[in-house]
Specification:
This protein is an alpha/beta fold. The protein has two domains: 198 residues, 3-Layer(bba) Sandwich (FAD/NAD(P)-binding domain), CATH 3.50.50.60; 134 residues, 2-Layer Sandwich (D-Amino Acid Oxidase, Chain A, domain 2), CATH 3.30.9. Helices cover 34% and strands 27% of the residues. The chain has eleven helices and 19 strands. Helix 2 packs parallel to helix 10. The protein is globular. One of its GO terms (molecular function) is oxidoreductase activity.
């Protein structure tokens, strides 16, 4: 009997040591969870938001990200929830087309729908909601304990995946020297319903830019019932002083209300009740995307400017590459994490450079802008 108990205890200890903790149940964390599950690796997700949280808006996912998602989500379900963009047109604020370009059928979807699809595959017992990290203790091996805001403390297993976003508590504790800096360009994003716009937009992505630079808005059909619109503005020239819904409405009317667009009812149908004011921040580059037993994924590892349209796709690629590295080096986590970090830092460096170039051009008058192409960073 004692031998059986010892064997069971040893087996349980092994499971606890090999289970991977995922801190954060957003796109990065849930993609990671699906890929680990598909690979037969045990995990548990801790997410600060409540169950069925619908916070967030939408995003563009280039083809490489869509291919990865299609390996863990039923392709028909995925496509049914979004839209493919086939053409991009840039206009000035007087409605004159500057450039039209064919897109690579880039996919768009709401955060709400993508999170739901990713959670659908995961057992409810593998995700714990309402779990916000308050603090951690650190030893020479890395994270020793994790303290949550509800008072619970856990001792993490051999590996902790930090997918808790740009404001990652764990990263700030492990790397306090890496700071966030406010970006000069901010965004307002909203999703709304309009039958007229749904029909007229179809698979088009339209972006309107002020001729003096520093002010633009883009619009596209997000799915069969919703349109997404975002405004980008230079906060030095056009600060948003009132962040309330009324302040956002006034700001949009003041800066965009007289612009000429083909969508004549544009400002009549916009609904700002769910508008999100995105104060874009940039993270100091990390020396490596891991620290001992903690590895950073998505925005916790790197911040990409919205001009690149690569933030979500980068998180998906992070999860894919990290999973491959762990499987290839299952008995050597140090080697796996170094490999992951080396691969992803090279790709992220390209997108960060492209984002910086696109931001510099955005601040210039249109006649000085060299690039009017699709606002998606690509690796050359």
């Amino acid at each position: 009997m004692n031998k059986i108990i010892y064997i069971c205890f040893s087996f349980l200890t092994k499971i606890l040591k090999t289970m991977i903790l995922i801190m954060g149940g957003g796109i990065a964390g849930l993609t990671m969870a699906n890929l680990l599950q598909k690979s037969g690796i045990d995990f548990r997700v801790y997410e600060k938001a409540p169950l069925n949280n619908e916070k967030g808006h939408g995003f563009i996912i280039p083809n490489d990200g869509l291919k990865i998602l299609s390996t863990i989500i039923d392709a028909d379900k995925l496509v049914d929830k979004g839209n493919f963009l086939t053409h991009f047109t840039a206009y000035n604020h007087e409605g004159m087309a500057i450039k039209t370009q064919q897109m690579n059928e880039d996919f768009v979807i709401s955060r709400r729908d993508l999170v739901a699809l990713l959670e659908e595959n995961i057992s409810i017992t593998s995700i714990v909601h309402h779990k916000k990290v308050k603090d951690i203790t650190i030893s020479d091996k890395g994270i020793e304990t994790i303290l949550f805001c509800d008072g619970e403390t856990i001792n993490p297993p051999s590996l902790v995946l930090c997918c808790d976003g740009i404001y990652s508590t764990i990263r700030r504790k492990l790397m306090p020297e890496k700071k966030l800096e406010a970006s000069r360009v901010h965004e307002i994003v909203t999703i709304f319903k309009s039958e007229l716009l749904l029909k007229s937009l179809g698979h088009q992505f339209k972006k309107f830019k002020h001729q003096d630079g520093g002010l633009a808005f883009g619009i596209f059909k997000l799915n069969e019932s919703e349109v997404l619109c975002y405004a980008q503005f230079d906060t030095h020239k056009h600060p948003l002083l009132d962040e309330s819904i009324g302040g956002i409405v006034s700001f949009m009317q003041q800066h965009f209300g007289t612009w000429v667009t083909e969508e004549t009812d544009f400002f009549n149908v916009l609904n700002f009740q769910n508008a999100h004011y995105w104060k874009v921040n940039e993270l100091d580059p990390l020396d490596a995307y891991y620290y001992k037993n903690a590895v950073f994924v998505g925005d916790a590892a790197h911040s990409l400017l919205p001009f690149t349209s690569q933030g979500v796709c980068a998180a998906i690629n992070d999860a894919h590459i990290l999973t491959d590295c762990l499987l290839e080096n299952e008995n050597n986590y140090d080697k796996a994490l170094q490999m992951y970090s080396d691969i992803r830092k090279l790709d992220i460096a390209i997108h960060k450079k492209n984002g910086s170039i696109l931001r510099t051009e955005f601040l210039m008058p249109i006649h000085k802008q060299k690039n009017q192409s699709i606002p998606i960073s690509v690796k050359s």
